[in-house]
Q: What sequence folds into this?
């Protein structure tokens, strides 16, 4: 069966949300503003409505997170990333989509890459595959892996090696001249961009040498060093610098200290992460 046809009230709300999105106009700057949504206790309807506002705006991309449970993102619940992205690929029209970040340890490399290619095909837009090496087994972020008996490699070098396995397979699977073993895998008009989320200088070097870009936590004291190391490793080829920061009051103002520091550092994309589903007015602030 197809999608249910919206009733009159549903159509009105859809028009209102798209109109709210069109009112958003990102202030001209070098840095593209993106939005990342984290599920809260709200239903899918509210999350979809917020996504439509983002879609109708000048934000560059809409990102989801990849976690099994909500507590890692200070949330009371979670949605599986690729199911969520499939719904967004159908619900939205313009905004690019991405995951920040896919944990290389939670799925087989093949499943994650086929999922990314599938979202790119369904949406007909550029897809951003944020890729992370996963957490230490001693970290509080490992709680969801422990609960599900998901193996976590140790030491850190082993997790980095796992991430490079994903990069190796992507190079083979997504090569325009790929081998016959990949003949009937999802075909791509545009290869998804792989952005490595880093929390160490070692992974920053891998990102610069192997990926299309890097993502850093802007509040990290090592953020600038991580960007520098990645740039040095990527010299001579296109490479995207991206960062994320959690939404806070005032950050819609281009003169906010975070926004100014990101611009000064030459960051290409800033992902504003909302914990829980934002109201339309919170998104509309970025166009005022």
A:
């Amino acid at each position: 069966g197809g999608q249910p046809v919206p009733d009159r009230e549903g159509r009105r709300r859809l028009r209102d949300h798209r109109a709210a999105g069109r009112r958003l106009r990102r202030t001209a700057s070098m840095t593209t503003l993106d939005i990342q949504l984290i599920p809260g206790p709200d239903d899918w309807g509210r999350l979809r409505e917020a996504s439509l506002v983002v879609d109708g705006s000048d934000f560059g991309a809409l990102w989801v997170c990849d976690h099994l449970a909500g507590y890692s993102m200070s949330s009371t619940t979670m949605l599986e990333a690729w199911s969520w992205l499939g719904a967004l690929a159908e619900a939205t029209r313009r905004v690019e989509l991405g995951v920040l970040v896919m944990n290389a340890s939670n799925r087989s490399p093949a499943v994650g890459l086929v999922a990314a290619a599938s979202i790119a095909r369904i949406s007909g837009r550029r897809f951003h595959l944020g890729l992370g090496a996963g957490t230490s087994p001693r970290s509080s972020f490992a709680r969801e892996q422990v609960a599900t008996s998901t193996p976590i490699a140790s030491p850190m070098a082993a997790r980095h090696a796992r991430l490079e396995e994903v990069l190796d397979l992507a190079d083979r699977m997504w090569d325009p001249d790929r081998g016959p073993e990949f003949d009937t895998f999802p075909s791509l008009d545009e290869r998804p961009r792989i952005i490595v989320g880093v929390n160490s200088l070692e992974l920053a070097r891998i990102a610069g040498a192997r990926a299309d870009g890097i993502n850093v936590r802007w509040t990290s004291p090592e953020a600038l060093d991580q960007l520098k190391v990645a740039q040095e490793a990527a010299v001579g080829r296109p490479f995207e610098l991206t960062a994320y920061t959690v939404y806070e009051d005032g950050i819609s103002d281009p003169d906010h200290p975070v926004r100014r520091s990101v611009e000064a550092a030459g960051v290409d994309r800033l992902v504003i992460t909302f914990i829980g589903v934002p109201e339309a007015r919170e998104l509309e602030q970025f166009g005022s």
